[in-house]
Amino acid sequence: MDKKAMYKLSYGLFVLTAKTDKDNGCITNTAIQVTSEPNQIGFAVNKMNLTHDMVKESGVFNLSIISEKADFELFKHFGFQSGREVDKFADFTDCKRAENGVTYITKGCNAYISGRVKETMDLGTHTFFVAEVTDMEILDEAASATYDYYQSNIKPKPETIKTGESVGTLEKGEAEGGKTVWVCKVCGYVYEGEDLPDDFICPWCKHPASDFEKKTV
Ligand code: FE
Hints:
With 217 residues, the chain is mostly beta strands. The chain has two domains: 12-149, Roll (Pnp Oxidase, Chain A); 156-216, Rubrerythrin, domain 2 (Single Sheet), CATH 2.20.28.10. Helices cover 13% and strands 35% of the residues. It contains four helices and twelve strands, in the order ββββαβαββββααβββ. The chain has helices spanning 50-58, 72-79, 147-154, 159-162; strands at 14-19, 23-28, 32-35, 40-46, 60-66, 95-97, 103-105, 109-122, 126-138, 180-184, 190-192, 212-216. The strands form three sheets. A seven-stranded antiparallel sheet has the order 2-1-5-8-9-4-3. A hairpin with a 3-residue loop joins strand 8 (109-122) and strand 9 (126-138). The protein is globular. The model is unreliable at 162-175 (pLDDT under 50). The structure holds fe (iii) ion. Residues 184, 186-187, 189, 202, 204-205, 207 line the site of fe (iii) ion (FE).
């Protein structure tokens, strides 16, 4: 079995936002339209994400569709830090509030979909939500970013580590000297060390050790 076959699946990328006592959002790549009559979408969210709990509690959310105009900052802001530790909307101005009271992202996104949860399914690490679409608007005509586009064009290249750029925890200058590092193929987070623990979870994107690539820098 070649596990890399999973990489051939095509995905979009989205900012999922919700509101309870505060606003929050996270990055997901799992949203799809599941039926058109009625218009329903489905998406899975990792239970470690605060947004997961907020969508489950409130039952209301927006899904902002990330476009090819998005920069890496958007992914870092919503994907690589937790709403349990920081208020992602405290100083974030590239957003508006939709009619459902939840924020949506106006920069680097080409549309948003508002939804109300109808069903949930426990998938272990994730919950799968099925929701009815309650509203939606186009924001921009830029093409939607696929996961592949993110990997090729938005995510900083692992090669940049060799030139000393900061891509994860490695700061300029630290990467010299034949050091072994493990680079997260999803987000670029860098783990320093000869061996990566099997149960290691990427602190930025929450992907497992199997998504890390060993490199000597
Ligand atoms: Fe990662």
